[in-house]
Each structure stands twice: as structure tokens, then as C-alpha cells.
Amino acid sequence: MKKAVAYCRVSRPEHETESQSLKMQEEKIRQYAPFAGLEIVEVFIDDGVSGGKALPTRPAGARLMAALEANEAEVVVALRIDRLFRDTLDALNTMQALDEMDISTHFVDFGGQPFDSTSPVGRLFFLIQVGFAEFERGRIADRIRENKLSRKAAGRSYAVAKFGADNTEGRVVPNQEELDTLVWMQEQYASGTSYHSIAKQLTEQEVPTKQYGARWYASTVKSVLERVRREQEEQAAA
Q1: Could you tell me the pTM of the whole model?
Q2: What is the 3-state secondary structure of the chain?
Q3: Which long-range contacts (CB under 8 A, 24 or more apart) does 25-33 make?
Q4: pLDDT, tens only, 121-146
């Protein structure tokens, strides 16, 4: 079997949904690997990182490229193109770099079919699909801007409620259960507990993430606590 590394990504760690959760991405990749003759030797996860950033500039993306340059694997596997790329130029440059290292790329869900970059037909469809991925990123940005303007004009909040609050009929209101969890998280971190340990405890206690995901990651805990710290500092300075 060929050695492979897996790559998973979500843009907003506090708001990942079941359709794109890190857990779901990793599970589908691991299910696919044996049928493709692949052995997953490491999983690289970018939690809360935009796909618009070039792969080598992302924390896990940079480690993935370093592992490939060190000949630790000969295949990269991701669930979909938009998990690995949302920028056409980045996709072309990265694929060229992988080609020069004789690294092939597999996308598990490629229009309903697995994708292998060593196939000429696969490469053609790759070019088409990555263009659509960038196009969709632009459409999402446009929809967000339009939604913000519409809600602002109607006097409603356009903010997506973060952990500790809910967006109810256009108004952000406190979520006391999540606020209690936030206090516990802050106390744990202040006492020296690592992000990883806090995430593990939250998962074991079956505390849901903002979008009711069942698994917490260290980067998600870090994102939540750093956001709360910034908000508290801004309030104190006001």
C-alpha cells in the first residue's frame, strides 16, 4: 500500500457543521483509503483557517508540505477540492510542486466520484472544479455582504452568534449554559490546563460545539478563549 497523508480543514472552528466537520472529513478519508490502496500515516488539520490562504502558508498546510518534501508519503488525500484549495493560482502552483515531487492527490468526493491526479481526465476535471471552488468562495463573500447590509437596514443583528450566545430572530442573546461552560474553560486554562486537555474533557463530557458537533479540538478551544479575552479587553478599555 502507498503511504498517504490526509488533510482536513474548516474555516470557522466555532461554527463547523456536520456537512464539513473535521471528524466527518477524517472518517470519510479513512474509509476511502483502503479501497484506494492507501495507508494514512498522518492527518493534518487546519481548524479555523480560510481556504483562500495558500496551502503552504496555513499552519497544518505548511507541515504537510514539509512532510512530503521529507518523503514521508507519496499521496495527499482530502475530502473535497474546496478543503484543500479555494484559490486557482494556489491550486495550480501547489499541484505543480507536488508533481515535481512525484506526489499524487486524491479527493474522496469529486463530484460523487473519487479523484486521482495521476489520471489525465482527472487533471482536466481538477482544473474545472478548482475554478468553481474559487467562484463559490466569491459568491459566499457576496452573499455575506448582502446579508449584512439587509439586516443592518432592518435594524437586525447580522452577526453570527459565537459560543456563549444565540442569534434569535436577528438579535444576539446570551446562552447561559454556554456562558457557564466558558467560565469553566477560562478557569481550567488559568489553572494551567492545556487547550488539548480542555478539548478532551469537553468531548468526554459530551458538551456540544456551537453547531452541535460532538468533538472539540485544541484549536477550537484556543479560538473561543482568545476571542473572549479580546472582547473582555475591549470592554475594559471602553
Answers
A1: 0.57
A2: CEEEEEEEEECCHHHCCCCCCHHHHHHHHHHHHHHCCEEEEEEEEEECCCCCCCHHHCHHHHHHHHHHHCCCCCEEEECCHHHHCCCHHHHHHHHHHHHHCCCEEEEEEECCEEEECCCHHHHHHHHHHHHHHHHHHHHHHHHHHHHHHHHHHCCCCCCCCCCCEEEECCEEEECHHHHHHHHHHHHHHHCCCCHHHHHHHHHHCCCCCCCCCCCCCHHHHHHHHHHHHHHHHHHHHC
A3: 25/78, 25/79, 25/83, 28/79, 28/108, 28/109, 29/77, 29/78, 29/79, 29/108, 30/6, 32/77, 32/106, 32/108, 32/114, 33/4, 33/6, 33/77
A4: 666 666 666 666 566 656 655 565 66
